[in-house]
Amino acid sequence: MENNFKHEIVANNPDIDVRFYLSKDEGSYVSPHWHNSLEIVYVISGKVTLNLPKGVKQTACDGEFFLANPREIHSVLSEKNEALVLQIPQKFYEKYAPSMALRKFAVDMTPTTDVGKTRLERLKKIFLDMYVVYDVRPEGYLLRFNSLLYELLFSLIHYHSEKIMQKDFDRDNKYFSRLKEIMKYIDENHSRPISVSDIAKKFSYNPDYLARFFKKYMNCSVTDYIYSVRVACVHLDLVNTDLPIGEILEEHGCTNHSLFMKYFREQWGCSPKEHRKNYVHQNIKIVSSEGTVST
Q: What pLDDT digit, counting tens, does each position of 75-128 carry?
């Protein structure tokens, strides 16, 4: 997977038209990003929290899952967990159901009706059956895997989605394009001092308007976002390199140490030094935004 922290380019498995894998994560944070795929994370054990715009949070524990819609900006905070991850490119399912581009998917993990409970359990079974088939790979496994995939998509369309008006879709497209460019600029310039005024000037916005616009659609301030990128970068260098902590902070633009420490402690609950020791002790190496793997 190629990842610049914000636009996650999903690489399909070599034998199927989707990305599907078992993730074993000792605890990680993926800063706000987006992709052109419908992402479903089924937590076998542990806990994973999906953070969406406007303060929406979805937490999945043992036997639960959550969805991130295509082009939906989201971040992921994981405690130790084992989960199945399915990423379905939008262009794949639009071949069979073009109207899916105008649908927003959501699954209620606590249905109150018998019908709702049955539909939820059916989705879980489909997901687990997909994993068993793909893991064992009996003769003709692709036939079975794809039939389950189509059944999953059919259920999502009919029971777990709502139609979006074309005008709302076009409006969100416009806002998303603006946010995407701003996020990209921050990604590429996080290592140097940047401010709301700098970014506003770059995109010919009034600073106050930019601050309000960003807060409304990202549910965080521009400064919050800048430091989420810096914290994510520092995190990777802390656990993957032996570079001095001061050098790492300087490399990623963390010249205001007290402010950086505030954000780092909010995210990880400890200092960078303690954080590095925790990962060294557990013998864990972070390899990508997919999570962590034991070394």
A: 888 888 999 999 998 888 888 887 777 788 888 889 999 999 999 999 999 999
Q: Tell me: the pLDDT tens digits for 174-232?
A: 777 788 889 889 989 999 989 999 999 999 999 999 999 888 777 678 998 899 889 88
Cα–Cα distance list, 70 to 12, 103, 104 (Å): 15, 10, 9
Is 0.70 surpassed by the pTM of this model? no
Buried b (16+ CB within 10 A) or exposed e, 150-186: eebbebbbeebbeeeeeeeeeeeeeeeebbeebbeeb
When the pLDDT of each residue in the chain is averaged and rounded to a whole number, the result is 84
Length of the chain: 295
Nearest to 8 by CA among 78, 73, 80, 53: 73
SS3 of the chain: CEECCCEEECCCCCCCCCEEEEEEECCEEEEEEECCEEEEEEEEEEEEEEECHHHCEEEECCCEEEEECCCCCEEEEEEEEEEEEEEEEHHHHCCCCHHHHHEEECCCCCCCCHHHHHHHHHHHHHHHHHHHHHHHCCCCHHHHHHHHHHHHHHHHHHHCEEECCHHHHHHHHHHHHHHHHHHHHHHHHCCCCCCHHHHHHHCCCCHHHHHHHHHHHHCCCHHHHHHHHHHHHHHHHHHHCCCCHHHHHHHCCCCCHHHHHHHHHHHHCCCHHHHHHHHHHHCEEEEECCEEEEC
pLDDT tens digits along 224-277:
889 988 988 898 899 888 999 999 999 999 999 999 999 898 878 889 999 888
Report which of 107, 113, 148 is spatially closest to residue 127, judged by C-alpha positions. 148
